[in-house]
Amino acid sequence: MSSTAFLVYYCVLILLSSVVGGMIPVWWNLTHRWMEVAVSFVAGIIFGVAVLHMLPHALVSALEQPGSEMNSTIMNLMTWFVIGFLAMFFIERFFCFHHHEAPADEEHVYDEQHVHGPGCSHEPHSDHAHDITWTGAAVGLTLHSLLAGVALAASVAHGHGGGLLPGLGTFLVIFLHKPFDAMTIAMLMARSGYSISARSYVNALFSLAIPAGAGLFLLGLSPEVGPTWFALPPALAFSAGVFLCIAGSDLLPELQFHHHDRWKLSTALLLGLTVAYLAGRMEGHSHGPRPNTANTPASAQM
Question: Which residues cross the membrane (predicted)?
């Protein structure tokens, strides 16, 4: 199966997960406790994919290229890693959108609200905790999803060189995290009085951001732009930085604001890391010396 076919299948499944995520507040009455457990689990997968998949693959792929020099190659990729982290960091800082809370919680009294970004409140039971608007969240999450789409396409393109399930780890990250993002927009629109049909329409548009990001990456790999293997390792390093920032924004506030259920949250994190590791094994991608690399067309090295 071609890498494009894998990417199309992944995008279709992610579209479905986004649509379902937008309807979760309508179908189920979620609680704060189980929302945090789910977020910790998915954040563990994101963290694992970033540091166990994307970054090592970027380094190895770049060093396999003809004429690569170790010190400059590593510095270049780590620079792209930092750029990816900062890109996601500033998107979250200026749009204040990374908000994963249950719409209602009758089982647990919050220690403090969990909202990220400047101008967002950490005051317990404060009305200011929900000052974030759905439009700001939608813009921030759309930019976030475009970067995730780039990460998915880069992982599939890289893994197709010798993997059984190319990009599986990245797909799992987006597939499991996308419902939280869609749910955030749906809940904020509901608080603003929008109907279910309006929320569904906006969510349908939002779900297209992942395929759009993947498409942007594929355009960058077109033969008219240049050799594909120049773009792939930096894209993987950039995506690793993006994913690490997302994982940190989900995990680090627990240390300060979620002293309850620390064992459950820690166990969920470790389970997520385990899933990331197993996904890497299932991808089946392996690196090694590439014969006649210097004479091999760039498009054939993917």
Answer: 6-30, 37-54, 74-91, 132-157, 163-180, 201-222, 228-251, 263-280
Query: How many structural domains are present in the chain?
Result: 1
Q: Are 228 and 299 in contact (CB under 8 A)?
A: yes
Assess if residue 78 is contained within a domain.
yes
Contact between 254 and 40 under an 8 Å Cβ cutoff? The reply is yes
Residues 46 and 177 sit within 8 Å (Cβ to Cβ): yes
User: Does 79 fall in a domain?
Assistant: yes
Residue with tokens 């799992």: 172
Which segments of 104-227 does DSSP mark as H helices, in order?
A: 134-159, 168-191, 196-206, 209-220
Single-letter amino acid code for the residue at 28: W
**Can you give the pLDDT of all 302 residues of the chain as single tens digits?**
677 788 899 999 999 998 888 777 667 666 667 778 888 999 999 999 999 989 998 888 888 877 778 888 899 999 999 999 999 999 888 876 555 554 544 334 333 444 444 444 334 434 444 456 788 888 888 888 898 998 998 888 876 555 677 888 899 999 998 888 888 888 888 888 888 888 888 888 888 999 999 988 887 655 544 445 457 888 899 999 999 999 998 888 777 665 667 888 889 999 999 999 998 887 765 444 443 433 333 333 33
CA terminus-to-terminus distance, the chain: 14
208 part of a folded domain: yes
Structural domain boundaries enclosing 237: 3-101+127-285
Output the six-digit token pair for 227: 């050799």
Q: Is 251 inside a domain boundary?
A: yes
